[in-house]
Amino acid sequence: MILPIYLYGNPVLRKKSVDIDKDYPNLDELIDNMFETMYKADGIGLAAPQIGKNINLITIDANVLAKDEPELEGFKRVFINPKITFNTEETIAIEEGCLSVPGINESVNRINNLTIEYLDSDFNKVTENLKGYPAIIIQHEYDHLNGIMFVDKISPIKKRFIKTKLNNITKGKVATSYKVKN
Length: 182
Prior knowledge:
- The structure is a single chain.
- The protein has a domain at 5-89 and 111-148: Peptide deformylase (Peptide Deformylase, Alpha-Beta Complex).
- Helices cover 23% and strands 31% of the residues.
- The protein has 4 helices and 9 strands; from the N terminus they run βαβββββββαααβ.
- It has a 5-stranded antiparallel β-sheet with strand order 2-3-4-7-8. The chain has a two-stranded parallel ribbon with strand order 1-9.
- A hairpin with a 2-residue loop joins β5 and β6.
- 34% of the residues are buried.
């Protein structure tokens, strides 16, 4: 089932999410719905707050970008209760967009190399080192779990330039090809 994606300005996107356990109701169905919603919106990642649930759950499938970025080949994951446990100081600036902030893309500085611990969809513990694009994608989605959005990480000057667009998104004055909720 395709779920509405919550837009910038909705308070659910600013709340810190909580861990879940394997007894979370209808978790497999929720994960399937998150992937389906993400695909319908042409996204590569979706965090649970973006569908109105403040739980520590992320779906990512970046295979579509593998032709240009080979390290994304096979990068399809479910992250339950993720924790970034190590990162380097080396950063990289990459232009990002977000399904919750449609029509806006800005360059964001992100850590280039990190280690993340999480549970997969079978609740097996996984520790993974991610570098480059996979690290950037997970940081973007991980921020959602902490009430942070990529536009919070851009310079104040750039933010002033997009202020009208952000206000319009908050008011629902934005066109998308997918179902949204203000």
